[in-house]
Amino acid sequence: MNTIPVFFTIDNNYAPYLAVALNSAIKNSSPERSYKAYVLHEKVSEENQNKIKALEKENFKIEFIPMTKGFDTITDRMSNRLRCDYFTLTIYFRLFIPEMFPDLDRAIYIDSDVIVTDDLGKLFDTDLGDCLIGACSDLSVAKVPEFVYYMEEGFGVKKEEYINSGVLLMNLALLREKNFTNHFLSLLSTYHFDCIAPDQDYLNAICRGKIKYLDSRWDVMPEENTPEREDTGIIHYNLFSKPWCYDNVQYDAPFWHYASDSGFMEEIKEYKEGYTDENKEADKKCIELLLKRGSEIPKNDITFKKIIESGVKVIL
User: Fold this and answer.
1) 154-176, pLDDT tens digit by residue?
2) Is the dihedral of CA 302, 73, 290, 139 positive or negative?
3) Nearest-angstrom CA–CA distance, 81 and 78
4) pLDDT in tens, 128-153
5) Which end of the chain has fewer CB atoms at under 10 Å, N or C?
6) Domains identified in the chain, total number
7) What does pTM read for this prediction?
8) How far apart are CA 264 and CA 255, in angstroms?
9) Residue 73: helix, strand or coil by DSSP?
10) Beta strands 163-170 and 107-110: pairing type?
11) Where residue 76 sits, what CATH number does that domain have?
């Protein structure tokens, strides 16, 4: 494959941060390779699309693809919300990439709350063997007792085995062969599993045992009381660690570096200046709710672990 496909999924609210992510990816790409960013989106304005496409380079193209059909079964309920406070269909779009792009055998997927600090070609070249996906262990939750309980009792996996879905190397050919997308939709419509991280939880359950654990440099998250890494490949401002919301977020300097000429610097600064104490208080309450749900969900009658143990085929 001559061109490296890189997927992002956003709605219009996340257009500024996608611009920063793409700006960083383009600037750190190899001039000797070719890349194409596929932006699967929900109602991104033409103005924002044009501003983002202005970042294109000869070897790094950007295409916007609207997602308008096939999501009737995914509705706004707590188990389908991102961070517990924000419902967006875009978090599920990555699960449809294998079927939507039958001409691609492998691809990279990246969340839009990132900056890329190394050439994505190095990630793309990782050997997946017979694994369905490559991903990094979710170190952001591995030290939180409530989330460790959620992983071990809700999924039956060790904390170091639970992956973050913000960076994925996808074996699209094998995912299609295993009928991954239809399997996900069947599980979703049959069990409506209660989830803290909806798409991520389904990926952890379905791909269990077929995950290539990537070097953690490809999904580095801000973490208090931990020295900054110098070998990052992707910095992921996961959950509430957003430099466009808070001061003194770890790795905020490189974010503002790539934001400065992203085409959205003024909008991002304005958003941060308008992030009120009420917003920050709401974030605290959401964190409390996530911790509470982490302690409660494994006690439900229907969990991934219990359904797997009952003999139902969940793991591909």
Assistant:
1) 999 999 999 999 999 999 999 99
2) positive
3) 5
4) 999 999 999 998 888 899 999 999 99
5) N
6) 1
7) 0.92
8) 12
9) coil
10) antiparallel
11) 3.90.550.10
